[in-house]
Amino acid sequence: MTNQLAADGAVPETKSEKPIRRKANQLIPEGSPWNEVEEAFLKRRSVRKYKRKQVPEHYVKRILEVGRYSASQGNCQPWRFVVVRDRDMISEMELFVQNTLAMMSSAPPEEVASEEPSEQQGPPPHPIPIKLLQEAPPGMGIKVFHGAPTVIFPLMDSRGIGHPEIDLGIVGTNMIMSAYSLGLGTCWVGFAEILNFSDWPQRLGIEEPYKLVEAITIGFEAGDAQHNFVQRETHRTAWFENGEQRDMY
Question: Residue 145 CA to chain centroid, in angstroms?
Fold first, then answer.
């Protein structure tokens, strides 16, 4: 892939040149405007409606290459990628997830002796996905892949040291920001994990030690979600410095 990317201009060819001396870092004053990288992270939004137009293949290769260069614990790079651009396959996967979620949402709740969850039961499910299940239009289910023409599955290598799922999150962040820089929309799809309860891992060629954990939808946005600035609640941060603790917001 690297050779192809070099031909596309994504990876510069190696030349025998003198190393470029880095410029000294210049401190920016407090309150300065966000730089390009910071601003990109602040502006990027999840896209849940796409045009039918397919993403150029070389765009996807660039995104994968940026993902491949992600940081990982011990540099063990515990990932592999599966790309699906077949609309029939994407529709079939979505239908399976929708049907499974429908069965989950219609199942009667288990009776428990106490309203307080025990350590064995764990915390109750997060309210957002439950709300999505309950508010989905009858017979339509949740648009799991949002009509995206390309779906990338970053697979997790369970042999990774530490917490490979965190490494996979770093990979995904690199990829969605690379896609954003190319003018594309993306969305994390956690519901894709439900595909593990079927023969889809085999159909996608996924074998141990790799696991299907998440999916990333990619396409040209139909709408203008990327330009909607969303206010976020500030959180308390415990700040330790010079032998003292203070709260920062």
Answer: 12
